[in-house]
Amino acid sequence: MADDGSNQSTTIWPSPKFYLQVNWDSQMMLFQEVSGLDASFEEINYRHGRNLPLSVFKMPGLKKIGSVIMKKGIVISDNKFWNLFNQIKMSTIQRMPITISLMDEARNATMVWTLTNAWPTKITDTDLKSEGNEVAIETIEFAHEGLVVTKS
User: Fold this and answer.
1) CB of 44 within 8 A of CB of 59?
2) Which helix (H) or strand (E) holds 82?
3) CA distance 23 to 113
4) Residue 81 main-chain phi, psi, to 5 deg
5) Looking at the predicted structure, is the pLDDT value of residue 91 above 60?
6) Is the dihedral angle over the CA atoms 72, 75, 79, 80 positive or is it negative?
7) Mean pLDDT over residues 113-131, rounded?
């Protein structure tokens, strides 16, 4: 007799990644893709003169966090990216928290990434092709000062 799946655990399956929500400052934004949620440590190689194995010690150095890149379709009369980008002056920008949530079918956040003091560093508008039939996509890249990951 075939297994109908009723004895399977509902908590062991990996989450799908297509249902996401992004809140920046106090407004919700809709994005097609978010990438760059990563962090790493620089590697420091150290060797003192009496090191008998004649090799280097490897130690963690400064933490590095990458820029986060978000992509969305261009919507007519939606200039939020450019309005935010045009507010940047020499060393002056309103930094904001950005929250990226991975949602389940019941619209509950299963994993949340929070960017601290984020600000836009680059905007890329779509390429234009007279023979194309793709959706026009714009990209915004954010620098930030910290990444906090919370799992539900």
Assistant:
1) yes
2) helix 80-85
3) 11
4) -60, -50
5) yes
6) negative
7) 92
With cut-offs at 50, 70 and 90, classify the pLDDT of residue 75.
confident
For the chain, the domains span 20-151
Give the domain 20-151 fold: Pnp Oxidase; Chain A (2.30.110)
**CA 141 centroid distance within chain:** 9
Asked whether the beta carbons of 42 and 99 are under 8 A apart, the reply is no
Residues 6+ apart with CB under 8 A from 51: 57
Contact status, residue 68 vs residue 132, Cβ threshold 8 Å: no
pLDDT of residue 1: 54
CA gap 141, 35 in Å, rounded: 10
pLDDT single digits (tens) 11-63: 677 778 889 999 987 888 889 999 999 999 999 998 887 877 778 889 999 99
Q: How much is the pLDDT for 5?
A: 65
What is the rounded CA–CA span in Å between residue 151 and residue 102? 10
The one-letter amino acid at 52 = L
Amino acid at 126: T
